[in-house]
Amino acid sequence: MKILVTIKRVEDPESKIRITPEGTGILQEGLKFKVNPFDEIAVEEALRLVAKHSGEVVAVSIGGKEVQEQLRHALAMGASRAIWINHTEALDQMSMALLLSKVVEAEKPQLVLMGKQAIDDDQSQVGQYLAEYAQMPQATFASKKDSLDSEAEKNKQPGIVLSPEGSSVVVTREVDGGLLQVQCTLPAVVTVDLRLNQPRYASLPGIMKAKTKPIQELTCAALGVSASNHLKIQKLLKPTERKAGVILPDVASLIDKLRNEAKVL
Amino acid sequence: MAVVLIFAEVQSDGQLKKAALHALTAGKALASTLGAALHAAVLAPDARAVAEEVKTYGVAKVHAMSAAGFAHNLAEACAPALAQLAQNIGANFIGGAATAAGRDILPRMAARLQAAMVSDVMAFEAEAGSTGSTGSTGSIVWTRPMWAGSVLAKVCLDTPIQVFSVRATEFAPAEKQNAATGVIEVFEAQLPQAFPSKVLSFIELKTIRPELTEAKVVVSSGRGAKGDFSQIEALADCLGGAVGASRAACDAGWVPNDLQVGQTGKVVAPQLYIAVGISGAIQHLAGMKGSKIIVAINKDAQAPIFQVADYGLVADMHKALPELLQAIEALK
Fold it and tell me: Which of B196, B324, B328 shows the shortest C-beta gap to A185?
C-alpha cells in the first residue's frame, strides 16, 4: 500500500502572529516553523497503517527550499521518501490541489492522507478540491470514537480501518451532532481531525536516517501546471481586542454584576 | 441578472439546519450588494418540505433537489449536483454556512466549477470603485480569519465563479417574510447509480440542551474540571444553556468532541459565556471571544482567559461553582 501524505510548513502554533505596519504580511522576526499539526497527525496515521498492512509513506510539500526542513521531519518520523514541489509564490487552495493532483496521477497512491486544514490559512479546502480533481471519494475530518487516552491509542492502533483485501477504507468522521462512519473505495482522500491519534516524536536514529532519505524536486512546469494564485490578500488587520474587565472578590459580587450591570440573569 | 446561490443545509433528521438561516442572511446581503437574485438549494432524500420552509425566508427561488444519495449530505452526491444546478442557473456566487457539511461539500463543488473559495467569511463589501450593479466578479472583498483568528484578512478571488462559506455567528438568522414570494423549482441532477462512498452508521450525540452554536448561554470547562463535568452541566441546565469544552477536555475524552469550542471546533457567540477552569489558549479564545458577556472563573490569576473576560473570579472552581449554582437558583 502506498500512502501519500501532504505536509505544509506553517508558523509554530505557539508563536505570536504580528502584522507588519502596512498590513501586507506578518512579521517574520522570531517566528519558528513547524509541520502543520493536522498534517503531523496524517503522517502518524499513515505510519500506523503501513506498520499494519506494509507499504510505503511518501510525503509531499509545496514551497521554497525551506519546506525541505518539514519534509525531513516527516522522514524522521518514518516516511520513506519525499517529493518537494519547488514553488515560491503564494497559491490559493484550488491551485495547491491542482498541483497535488498531478503528483497523485504520477504516484498512484491508494490513499492520500492530509490535515483537515492548515493552521495558517484555516481554509479547510485542499483535500476536497484534490478529491474532485483526482476523481476519488473523500472522507473529511477523520476522528476516532475512543479518546486519545484509550488502550488502542496506547498500542498505536490506526483509527482509519482498511479492509483486509485493501479495496476500501472505513473512516469515522467528526460531523455536526455526532460521528458519521463512512466506507470509501480506494483510492481515496482522507483529511484528518485532531482526535485521530497522538503523533509520535521523531527518534534520534530516525532523524539520522532521514538525512539520507531521498527528496525528489519537482516544479510546476515539470508537472505541466501553470500555477496561478486566485486568492489575493488585500490587507491584514488586527481583530478588535476585547478589553480585560474587572476581577471580582466573590460569587455574590459576580451575581450582582451579571444581574444589574450586564443584565443577563 | 447575477445569481447568488445558497446551499440550505438539511440535517440528518430531515430538518433545516439553523446555520442555514444565517447563511441566507449573508446571501441576501450579498445579493443586494451585487444587485443579484437570491436562490437557495435544498438537497435531501425528499427536499419538498424543507424547500417549502426555505421559500418563506425571502429568497426569489428555491431549488428542491431530491435524491437518495443526498442522505447525510454525502459530498460525492451533493457536490456534483450543486455544481450542475449552479451551471444551469448561471450562479456567480455560491455559498453556505461553514458547518461540517458545508466545509465538506462546497470546496468539492468549487473544484467542478473551477471556482476559488473563501472559508469562514465574517463580512464582505463591494470593492472600492466597483459599481456592483452586475455580477462582475472580483468586485467583492471578503473578510475572513487566519491563524486561529489572530489576524483578519481582506481577500479577493479572481475566478468567474466564487464560492464562500460563512461563519454563522457573524450573521443574524433570516426571518420569515409575511408574503412568501419565493417559488419552488424541482431540479433533477444527473447522478451516477452508485457512489464510491457510503454511510455505514451515524452515532448521534443526543443532548437535551440547546445546540452549542445556537445557545444564548454557554458554560464551558477545561483541564480544571479534572474529568468531572457534572457541576458544569448543572450550571448550564440551571441557565438553560449549552455545555462547551476546551480542546484538552475533549482530547481527554471527558466530553464528546463536538462540544469543543475553538478555532478548530465550534465558534460560538452567546449572550453569556462562562469559562470555568479554562486557561484560555488562543485557539479557544478564537472560538468564543465574539460572545457578548464573558465570565471567567479560574484559580490562576495569570490565566489568559482573564484578558478577554468582562467579569473575572479568581477562585477554585470546585468551591465557586456550587456557590454560584445556589445563588442563581435563589434568584428564580
Answer: B196
DSSP state of B268: -
CB contact under 8 A, A258 and B272: yes
> What per-residue confidence (pLDDT) applies to B134?
47
Q: What span, in angstroms and rounded, lies between the C-alpha atoms of B171 and B28?
A: 11
Angle at A126 between CA A125 and CA A127, to 5 degrees: 95
What's the rounded Cα separation, in Å, for the pair B59 and B51? 11
Whole-number pLDDT of residue B214: 81
b/e string for B244-270 if b means 16 or more Cβ within 10 A? bbbbbbbbbbbbbbbbbbbbbbbbbbb
A128 touches chain B (CB under 8 A): yes
Please give the residue of chain A at the shortest CA–CA distance from B118: A123
Q: What is the pLDDT confidence band of residue B132, given thresholds at 50, 70 and 90?
A: very low
Asked if pLDDT for residue B135 goes beyond 50, the answer is no
Cα→Cα distances B283→A14, A123, B46, B231, B304, Å: 10, 15, 39, 24, 12
Does the pLDDT value for residue B137 go beyond 70? no
What's the distance, Cα to Cα, between the start and end of chain B in Å? 55
Reported pTM: 0.93
Which amino acid is located at A101 in the chain?
S
Return residues 258-287 of B near A (CB < 8 Å): 258, 263-264, 271-272, 283
Please list every residue in chain B whose beta carbon sits closer than 8 Å to the beta carbon of residue A137.
Answer: 76, 195-197
Quickly state the pLDDT bin for B183 (edges 50, 70, 90): very high
Q: Is B234 on the interface with A (CB under 8 A)?
A: no
Residues B215-227 pLDDT 10s: 899 999 999 999 9
B226 in reach of chain A (CB within 8 A) = no
